[in-house]
Amino acid sequence: MSNNVFDYIVVGAGSAGCVVASRLTEDANVRVLLLEAGGPDTSVLIHAPAGVVGMVPTKLNVAGYETVPQPGLNNRRGYQPRGKVMGGSSSVNAMCYVRGNAWDYDHWAVLGNPGWSFKDVLPYFRKSEDNDTFDDEFHGKGGPQGVTLPSDASDLNQTFLQACANQGIPTIADCNGADQFGAFMYQRTIKDGERVSTAKAFITPHLGRPNLTVLTHALTERILVENGTAIGVRVRLKDGVQDFIATAEVIVSAGAFGSPQLLMLSGIGPAAHLQQKGIAVVHDLPGVGRNLQDHIDYVMTYRIPSDTESFGLSLRGAVAVTKGILQWRNERRGIITSNFAESGAFFMSKPGLDVPDMQLIFIPAIVDDHARKFHLGHGYSCHLTLLRPRSRGSVTLVDSNPATAPAIDPGFLVEPEDLEDLARAGQMMRRILEDSAFDAIRGKLLYDVKADDLEDMKRDIRNRADTQYHPVGTCKMGPASDGMAVVDHALRVHGLRNLRVADGSIMPRLVGGNTNAPIIMIGEKLADMLRREH
To answer: Does this model's pTM top 0.90?
Structure first.
């Protein structure tokens, strides 16, 4: 067989792509090419969990996209970092392992996607998981994806949990268990003191497989389509452009921004938009790039004394980090094993809701503007996330150059109810952060927001809120009767053969939680479907 011919080609070595490539090559007779536009995952900032704060703001291993101006955010441009490295965003994220609510997946099924109810997808969550704490009907052991509770967490987390309890949010052990409502310690994709990205879990142990070929610094320029069938891809490598042929299928796993961009560059998408950019229309598919949803995030930060156990910019903080680096190097223990997002909560912002619509992420540090703005001293921060926004946005092409970033419009707060709900929940977050549990240490709020003034909080949200890094939906899964659906329930692109999409872009609706674990599940489910079909 020619060295440019494979059974499957997977575009994007991220949270789903690594899973698909790994599972397919468990069959020694199946040849898979895995393509990644970024480089190898060799940086210590990837493997040391606390290194996340060194990557997101500096754009190391990150594609640092910006949104178009957001009217809902006073026309600010938001920051949209995505992993550009083996493992994709699973190599640069904050490592929270959260599945969302069972309701989310049942709702996907109601929307016309058979096989995606929570009962259907739970086995795939369990299959990938190696959980060090929980061993029950909701969790798996022995899978490739390490999942652990914090080993060296700040004592401030217990203060946060007590404050939540005082405000009516009970402490629970497992946010991925039977009931999501409550406050808890986050489960994390960390094992033995190191980040477990999908590259490390699913690809690195199997690089010796002769049927698995991995190419990094490989920018896929377009999908090759003949007579309505995907036959391969054209890839820009360091030494030139090369075509690779897929005898079975092409799987696009380039993420909520990259997947619709690649489809459109290949002539698959809204015909008028493609023609406007000078791209020949291969298949008119109006939903490509539409239905963008993202979790908008609002942060409150309080100062605390420098002798409190927390991360901070101070002489004491520098000494603690230096000691922590040595401890991590020698023992894989200590503060460098922290993902910062150590505890949190899910709660309902108003009466009458069946499932939580808000998420809190508590961080024992001052966090401001994606860690790009520094403040001297110590503090604690809390992120508030609106879980199921009504607002929708889009991803469109700027031009026909594959190296040009797409135009990203999350449409934050275009629906007024999103702002109403977020502000109301922001008042709850403030009550928690100013609860008596924090009285002994709490200092000044970093920003000037009037207490119990809903309109002033809305002003502050418009001034400062931004993404929680969970864009989805731009290659929406749905039946052919849905004019905006891009893929069917088997993740096949509507109207084309041998072409599928598998990543967060296929979600018809955002899940109520972080998106990395659900995207790993999507990879597991697609790999199983492919093995059954072929």
So the answer is: yes
